Amino acid sequence: MRRLRYSINVTLDGCCHHEAGLPPDEESMRYWTAEMERPDALLFGRVTYEMMESAWRKPATGTWPDWMNAWQIPFAETIDRAKKYVVSSTLSGVDWNADLVRGDLGQAVQRLKQESGEGLWVGGVTLPLALADLGLIDEYEFLVQPVLAGHGPTLLAGLRERVQLELVDRHEFRSGAVALRYRSTRITT
Predict the structure, then answer these.
(1) Mean pLDDT of 173-189
(2) How many angstroms separate the Cα of 3 from the Cα of each of 61, 69, 125, 148?
(3) Tens of pLDDT along 118-166?
(4) Closest CA to 82 of 48, 42, 51
(5) What is the DSSP letter of 163?
(6) Which residues make Cβ contacts (< 8 Å) with residue 40, sequence separation at least 6?
(7) CB atoms closer than 10 angstroms to residue 20
(8) Please, which residues have CB within 8 angstroms of residue 46's CB and are 6 or more apart in sequence?
(9) What is the pLDDT, as a whole number, of residue 187?
(10) Best exposed site among 35, 50, 135, 162 by fewest CB in 10 Å?
(11) Residue 78 scores a pLDDT above 80
């Protein structure tokens, strides 16, 4: 059975907007590249899928854009080639090595988790909240940025039930950010 890990950048005050924290640097991009190489597949909601595709899909020319630094390319290549599942009721189709997930979210994700493999990864805001409410997230990974945003979407806002976590790993960055990985100790029913 594959484990599902939720990973996201978050500010000290809980903001999880993708532009609220520190800009990516070489160290954080190496970290995220290694994290994206671990799972068998990535699970996205529509908004995250479209955002990631617009930033990290390799152009038809086969050449990465000029704005991309050399140290960003390994991350871009990892995301570009990864298997993706997209949860959406509004998209009529997806590509970019992706399959559309429709129907009952809990049943669909449970089927994905029951497949053999190294794991699944989910990012974003809305989809992880729904998955947390269903008790389907096995691990939570927060890259806590040393920033107070003061506004923006907050981490798991509206969670219906408390989720107890156990710290299993931590990694400190030169920037002052800290990656914290937790295992859910919540008993799912």
Answers:
(1) 85
(2) 36, 32, 19, 31
(3) 999 999 999 999 999 999 999 999 999 999 999 889 999 999 999 999 9
(4) 42
(5) -
(6) 2, 83, 115, 117, 118, 119, 120
(7) 20
(8) 86, 87, 88, 90, 91
(9) 55
(10) 162
(11) yes
Token readout for 19 is: 């532009």
Residues in the chain: 189
Rounded CA separation 49/44 (Å): 5
Residue type, 43: L
Q: Which pair of structure tokens corresponds to residue 134?
A: 């269903």
Instruction: Report the Cα–Cα distance between both ends of the chain, in Å, rounded.
Output: 17
How far from chain centre, in Å, is Cα 7?
Answer: 4
Residue owning tokens 């800290």: 178
| E runs forming strands in 47-186 | 83-87, 98-101, 120-122, 139-145, 165-172, 178-184
Return the pLDDT at 189: 42
Distance CA 77, CA 79 (A): 6
